[in-house]
Design goal:
Distance between the termini of chain B: 42 Å
Structural class of chain B: alpha/beta
Order of helices and strands of chain B: EHEEHEHEHHHEHEHEEHEHEEHEHH
Number of helices of chain A: 11
Structural class of chain A: mainly alpha
Shape of chain B: globular
Helix content of chain B: 25-40%
Shape of chain A: globular
Number of strands of chain A: 2
Strand content of chain B: 25-35%
Number of domains of chain B: 2
Oligomer: heterodimer
Order of helices and strands of chain A: HHHEEHHHHHHHH
CATH superfamily of the largest domain in chain B: P-loop containing nucleotide triphosphate hydrolases
Bound molecules: adenosine-5'-triphosphate, magnesium ion
Radius of gyration of chain A: 19 Å
Chain lengths: 267, 343
């Protein structure tokens, strides 16, 4: 509660300071939109040629791409620039100020900024989600809507955990930004196509080690009701929320371990 | 029970060794070598409620590092810090409610946010009740003159303005303890004086405990009842200012105006008097006041010269500290002193 109240105080101030930058602020919303348009176009071009990839048709693949984008977008609003700010702070030694305030530094880190940049992504993703649902003839009743939201939140938590963990690397490594980018953008790109197209090793890695498959592959299986290409165990899609919670808890532990390693800079 | 207890406090920093040359660099990618820098070494002290303590020492002595451990920013390598019975880095939130901290080198406020908004955020963050906020703001505004820049973003403030804003923010919630790490760095004379007065008032009226580091000895003289001197991470002196002056301020300086030019005298020198700067008929003499009395010297001079005027100057605190630092350096570890120079 206290957290939400503080959040409500911080956000208007954040936006006021950002809108002062004028045009650039509004351009931010366009953000990666162009990027995504290109990606959808590539999927369209590819799928028009091959019809299906491993049994997944064009709209199913687009749905997967969309889920990845949506869960990342939502997580990024609260964590992405917040964590890059942390990296900057740790590098400059200004992270000190988060450790002398009567509020959990993790919460403080989240509320002092806002990733409006990613709102554009979320809008596009929601639009494409509706479009894919329509094309695939999917509709949600009450129960499946709840299940859908639950797996979506699980996916968001997985994405958030990866942002937090890779971002926290700054407490151990001097130049951690490149690691963060590699994890967040490199590995994430693997997820634009069904995990079932990869070999067993990669499937295992993406399910059990860096479980990115839970941001879109398993949720998509659930939404599309696909039991034919179940990997490892048929109940895995249902584990998405739990995987999200677990991974996020690990992310928080890593962050806390980082705090206690923080050395600051001289002066 | 003392308000702050520090026992055998120690902080080591791990620094990655820099390698020059291709092969050493390649090797360091595989096997990282660290060098350990002990910034604070087995420091122990206690501080009671209401004290104003000056924590001084040469650059790199370990002052900021000690403060950061007391505040809860850094985790000690070993040893104990207890503030109000709490271990700061284990109870950051609880500890933060009761303390205020100003770091002269870095702002604790939100960089992109106007001063007044920053102060308001502080109010919400510390749950300061409205009436107390209004009262404190009014009081602090009078002393710190925040009005002229309250709408300006923290990042665009001048150094002095930023310091005033930071001080205000650090004290808004009536903390029990304030840590001030170089609060007067880079300030003009007027602002410095105003800030000193402010700190004095806060201490007197609210009983706030103050721990401050500084390189400006006037801060120490005007504010602190107790001084701690650190060097190379070790506590070298802990006591009141008077004792420090007596122990290290024993060199006195005398200036004598004579009709005829003053000639150096072997006899005076044997009495322990050193000749300083001499210009025209004014001569400076320095001596250890514990081994020779100024009246003895002046008597000796008056028997030989006609004296127009003379003054005896006690050594200034600046000089005392300079002597003390030099003394420490000669006694301290010359090896690490050289290591510092190489970096
Ligand atoms: N984050 C850090 N990493 C590595 N070494 C550090 C770090 N912080 C401080 N040191 C080293 O520890 C020693 C003590 O530094 P500290 O900042 O405590 O000195 P100080 O007494 O505050 O000096 P100054 O008067 O210059 O502010 C210095 O030798 C410094 O180089
Ligand atoms: Mg310092």
């Amino acid at each position: 509660m206290r957290f939400l109240k503080l959040y409500a105080r911080f956000i208007p101030i954040y936006f006021k300071s950002k809108t002062e930058h004028g045009f650039g602020f509004y351009m931010d919303f366009v953000g990666f939109a162009l990027n995504h348009v290109v990606s959808y176009f590539v999927i369209w071009a590819l799928m028009s040629r091959f019809q299906t990839i491993n049994g997944w048709n064009m709209y199913e693949v687009m749905l997967m791409y969309t889920l990845n984008m949506l869960t990342f977008g939502i997580a990024a609003v609260f964590f992405f620039f917040q964590m890059t700010d942390v990296e900057e702070d740790v590098h400059m030694g200004t992270f000190d100020s988060l450790l002398v305030k009567p509020i959990n530094p993790f919460v403080h880190m989240i509320i002092r900024a806002f990733g409006h940049f990613f709102l554009g992504d979320i809008v596009i993703a929601v639009g494409m989600l509706v479009f894919c649902f329509h094309k695939l003839g999917l509709s949600l009743d009450f129960g499946s809507a709840i299940a859908f939201i639950a797996v979506l939140l699980g996916g968001v938590l997985v994405q958030a955990a990866f942002i937090v963990i890779s971002g926290s690397a700054c407490f151990w490594l001097v130049r951690s930004r490149s690691l963060m980018n590699m994890v967040l953008f490199g590995i994430r790109d693997l997820m634009d196509y069904p995990v079932s197209i990869y070999g067993t090793v990669l499937r295992g890695v993406l399910t059990f080690v860096i479980p990115y498959a839970f941001v879109n592959f398993y949720p998509a299986q659930l939404i599309l009701n696909r039991n034919d290409d179940a990997l490892f165990a048929s109940w895995l899609p249902y584990a998405t929320p739990a995987v999200g919670l677990l991974l996020f808890a690990i992310g928080y532990r890593v962050w806390n371990a980082g705090l206690n390693r923080y050395q600051g800079t001289g002066s | 029970m003392a308000l702050i207890e520090v026992e055998y406090l120690r902080k080591e920093f791990k620094r990655q060794k820099r390698k020059d040359g291709f092969w050493p660099l390649m090797k360091s990618l595989v096997h990282r070598e660290y060098e350990i820098k002990t910034a604070v070494e087995n420091i122990s002290f206690t501080i009671d409620r209401g004290e104003v303590v000056g924590y001084i020492g040469p650059n790199g002595a370990g002052k900021s590092t000690t403060i950061k451990m007391m505040v809860g920013i850094l985790v000690p390598t070993s040893g104990i810090v207890r503030v109000n019975g709490l271990v700061p880095y284990e109870n950051r939130i609880e500890n933060a409610r009761r303390i205020g901290a100003v770091f002269g080198q870095k702002s604790q406020l939100w960089w992109d946010t106007p001063v007044i908004e920053s102060l308001r955020l502080t109010k919400y963050m510390y749950d300061i009740p409205n009436d107390r906020y209004e009262r404190n703001m009014k009081l602090f505004n009078d002393v710190l003159d925040l009005d002229e820049f309250k709408k300006v973003a923290v990042r665009s403030l001048s150094l002095g303005q930023r310091m005033r804003a930071d001080l205000c923010a650090a004290l808004l919630h009536d903390p029990d303890i304030v840590y001030l790490d170089e609060p007067t760095i880079g300030l003009d004379v007027v602002v410095k004086e105003r800030i000193r007065q402010f700190i004095r008032e806060i201490n007197r009226e609210r009983g706030t405990t103050v721990i401050l580091t500084t390189h400006d000895m006037a801060d120490i003289e005007k504010l602190c009842s107790r001084v701690m001197v650190v060097d190379h991470g070790k506590l070298m002196y802990d006591g009141n200012l008077e004792t420090l002056k007596n122990d290290f301020g024993n060199m006195e300086k005398m200036e004598v105006d004579t009709d005829e030019p003053f000639a150096m005298s072997e006899e005076l020198r044997r009495m322990g008097v050193a000749f300083g700067l001499t210009e025209e008929n004014r001569t400076q003499l320095t001596y250890d006041k514990n081994s020779i009395n100024s009246t003895v010297i002046i008597k000796w001079i008056m028997e030989r010269y006609s004296v127009r005027d003379f003054i005896v100057k006690e050594t200034e605190i600046e000089q005392i500290i300079r002597d003390l630092y030099i003394h420490l350096q000669q006694q301290g570890t010359p090896v690490s002193a050289r290591e510092e120079a190489l970096i």
